[in-house]
Amino acid sequence: MAQMRLDRLLGEMGGGTRTQIKELAKKGRVSVNGQVEKKTDRKVDPAVDKILVDGRQVAYTRWSYYLLNKPQGVVSARTDDRYPTVTGLIRDADRKDLFPVGRLDIDTEGLLLLTNDGDLAHQLLSPRKHVDKVYFVTIEGRLPEDHQKQLAAGLTLEDGTRTLPAELSIQREGADGMTDVLLTIHEGKFHQVKRMFEALGCRVVYLKRISMGPLALDEGLAPGQYRPLTPAEIGMLKAAGTAKGPSGAVFAGKEERTEEGAKRPDLRRERG
Ligand code: URA
Q1: In whole angstroms, what is the distance from residue 184 CA to residue 133 CA?
Q2: Nearest ligand 1 atom to alpha carbon 188
Q3: 168-185: per-residue pLDDT in tens?
Q4: What are the CA-CA distances from residue 159 to residues 72, 146, 188 (Å)?
Q5: Residue from 104, 184, 190, 197 to probe ligand 1 pocket by mutation (most atoms less than 8 Å from CB)
Q6: Where do runs of H (alpha helix) occur along the chain?
Q7: For residue 67, pLDDT beyond 50
Q8: What pTM did the predictor assign?
Q9: Up-side HSE of residue 188: CA atoms within 13 Å toward CB?
Q10: What average pLDDT score do residues 148-155 get?
């Protein structure tokens, strides 16, 4: 691994600001390979050097990836004045610079990827990539007879926005007027699922994302629970992010801005 400054390594691992780390080192609380180290601008190799703070080893992780089953009542953001945030749920995160890849509404549950890998996030959210997202949806109201035809042709949302073709399969039609469906979409516009059902004359009463590209929500993860991604999952996501569009060709034309947050500077400031 490449060498890096000791204060940068400790800072990235949540050790505080450069000044705070300097203070720690001044007090003799930092050691490198068994020697107390007071110079925080010295270079270290995280793969080779053994770095301890207060006698506890600091393991260095450059990239972190977590799969969260987002509960309702939590916003897809790093900070919020009113509500708990998804990053706040990852209590034992290796790194403190995680952010959600896209967003789910505050009342939506399900699969949310959290990472500090901005390039991967950007790839997965790019409207050019058409990464599939599957949602379990409970709707109120009857779907029109020709809903499959309408979805396949693409819908026109209330503001005139057109959606890409989407697929729907009915799971259960209740006597209570509620219908459970699975909906697969290939883009991520603002409140897209809710607006699509509105265009079909129905109302979403429950929404849960169950997959994003090759990544699926584990049945075993209760809302609010999370786990690190496996190396195989990280590999599959990277492959999905670097793959070309569905036809094998990169989608032609200007990159469309998605409301889900494909533009790099916005990735860490998502609102649910
Ligand atoms: N579509 C919505 O309407 N809401 C979400 O949270 C995700 C997709």
Answers
A1: 6
A2: 8
A3: 999 999 989 999 999 999
A4: 27, 22, 16
A5: 104
A6: 6-12, 18-26, 86-89, 118-125, 147-153, 192-199, 231-242
A7: yes
A8: 0.84
A9: 29
A10: 98
